[in-house]
Amino acid sequence: MPNILSLTLLLPFLGALLVACIPANFRFLIQLIALFTTGLSLLFGIFVFVSFDPAAPGYQPSQSVSWVDTLGIQYRVGVDGINVGIILMATIVAFAATCVAGSVTERVKEFYFLLLVMIGGVIGAFASLDLFFFFFFHELALIPTFIMIGMWGRGENKNYATFSITLYLTLGALIALIGLIALYLSGNPRTFDIEALAQQFQQNPIPLASQNFIFPMLLFGFGILVSLWPFHTWAPLGYAAAPTATTMLHAGVLKKFGLYGLIRVALPLMPEAAHAWVNVISWLCLGNIVYSGMVAMRQRDLNLLLGNSSVAHMGFVFLGIASLSLVGITGAVIIMISHGLLAALSFAISGHIYQQTGTLEMDRMGGFLKAMPFVGSAFLMAALAGCGLPGFANFIGEAMTLFSAFKEMSLVTSLAVWGGLVIAAVYMLRAVRQVLHGPLPDAFANVSDATWGKIPLALLFVTLLWFGIWPRALTKKITPAAERIVRMVSKTGAVNVAQNSR
Question: Cα(337)–Cα(88) distance, rounded to whole angstroms?
């Protein structure tokens, strides 16, 4: 019988199956099923998060069902401090995205079917402890993304954006798959079980030459999926063209898959290569933070600005990972959670603005704080959170990554501070001025504030603020699991790298 974690990820698939069986003209029933299944999944996600005990050993809850014994494949899901907060964030964003999906008016049945499949795949990817299902669920979530952008996307560059995001993410997934297969082949006995592989490689580490082949495969494969500079150009274009709900899910949740893969798989299984590639990661992350931030300053389209801002924020996660420290890894996970909430909130707001005005060109906007006080206030709060203002969860994560990285990478960290604080403040506050202040254009005199749309915005904002005011709700759960990973990385990595450099 499925446990509560399995129910959390299976409910969206059940909803998709029910939607597939309902005639297309029953739109209200389709929307109701989607809201009910994602809402129930959210309640289960909250229960998993609240009931998780960081002091207890192992994964909780967990479930394992053998599938293909000859290949060592099993359906295995579980929760520890690394993914418990991410799964909670995923269920929150999924419910919020389902709430705002009502703006879709064409081929509603097909859209909700794909949306629910994407949600189930997203949750399954972060819950899986088997490499096969880890990758399978990600691809299951990725395919609907391509279809939804191509069919329900907007803007003149919709087709190009669909082609670009499909090409980049397929390439990234293929490179990562090569690395994952190589990991599987390195096991003895061969298995896809992540925990079993970790135990094997602690006793018999992968040869350094093999690590230096597999680790960059995972680094750049996962990196492309995360929009690591310079493989990031698909992200702003894709998010500008995608439907609002799709953008919320991908930018908020699915994009974190690559970062989660580095922390869960690459670092603990290949500690020597992790130390060898730290400098590469640290300098590449500057491209995200500084370059993407400067590109964001030049944008006139709100979604392109938010897309480049999202890419810039990923640099802080890479910086935390590159620190290979307890504080850095903990901060990286907090940023993954907080940015997921922030990205979903920001794109939900931009979706409402587009629905009301038919444009996202900031030069044509103004006065929206008075015309749409709730949405305008939410946009102001999201902009301040994006600047790293204390009181929001983003500040906690970014501060932890910067403090952890400064000792070993002072130059990189100093540049990251300049890029993350100064540049982000410039483009975010400029957007606030253009969108919220000044006179309201006559063309937008009839814009209206959100009604039922206030629910998903409030849910995302309150959660972001709650984790910012009470970060211990996250840190006390993350720290023990992050400590285990850091211990696995530091146990052999520094010593062997030093020996091989002589």
Answer: 9
Confidence of residue 502 (pLDDT cuts 50, 70, 90): very low
Q: Which two tokens stand for residue 362?
A: 């900031």
- Give 498's contacts (C-beta < 8 A, 6+ positions apart): none
Place of tokens 């897309």: 307
R_g of the chain, CA atoms, integer Å: 22
**What's the DSSP call for residue 442?**
G
The CA-atom distances, in angstroms, between 434 and each of 138, 272, 301, 380, 449 are 37, 49, 11, 12, 18
Contacts of 386 (CB under 8 A, 6+ apart): 309, 313, 342, 346, 394, 424, 428
Kindly list the distances between the CA atom of residue 332 and the CA atoms of 7, 183, 311, 325, 405, in Å, as whole numbers in the listed order.
28, 24, 14, 10, 11
Angle between helix axes 244-252 and 131-152 (nearest 10 degrees) is: 150
Of all residues in the chain, the percent with pLDDT exceeding 70 is 95
Can you tell me which residue has the tokens 């005011």?
469
135-164, pLDDT tens digit by residue?
999 999 989 988 888 888 887 778 888 888
Give the DSSP per-residue string, 229-296.
Answer: TTS-THHHHHHHHS-HHHHHHHHHTGGGHHHHHIIIIIHHH-HHHHHHTHHHHHHHHHIIIIIHHHHH
Residue 303 and residue 80: Cα distance in Å, rounded? 34
Instruction: Output the six-digit token pair for 455.
Output: 């629910």
Structure tokens belonging to residue 314: 């990923």
**Neighbouring C-beta atoms of residue 25, cutoff 10 Å:** 10
pLDDT of residue 497: 38
The pLDDT tens digits of the residues spanning 373-414 come to: 998 899 999 998 888 788 888 888 888 888 887 776 766 676
- Residue 128 gets which letter from DSSP? B
Q: What is the pLDDT of residue 419?
A: 67
- CA–CA separation, 484 and 67 (whole Å): 28
DSSP code of 422? I
- Cβ-based neighbours of 33, under 8 Å, separated by 6 or more: 15, 18, 19, 22, 112
* Cα 108 from Cα 336, distance rounded (Å): 31
Bond before 57 cis per omega within 30 degrees:
no
In angstroms, rounded to a whole number, what is the distance separating the alpha carbons of residues 101 and 34?
A: 10
Are the C-beta atoms of 168 and 221 separated by less than 8 Å?
Answer: no
Q: Are 348 and 449 in contact (CB under 8 A)?
A: no
Cα distance from N-terminal residue to C-terminal residue, the chain: 55
pTM: 0.91
Q: Rounded distance, CA 420 to CA 331, Å?
A: 15
Residue with tokens 């899910």: 249
Residues 6+ apart with CB under 8 A from 198: 268, 269, 488
Residue 71 is predicted with a pLDDT of 82
Please say if the pLDDT value at position 196 is more than 80: yes
Crossing angle for the helix pair 326-357 and 393-406, to the nearest 10 degrees: 140
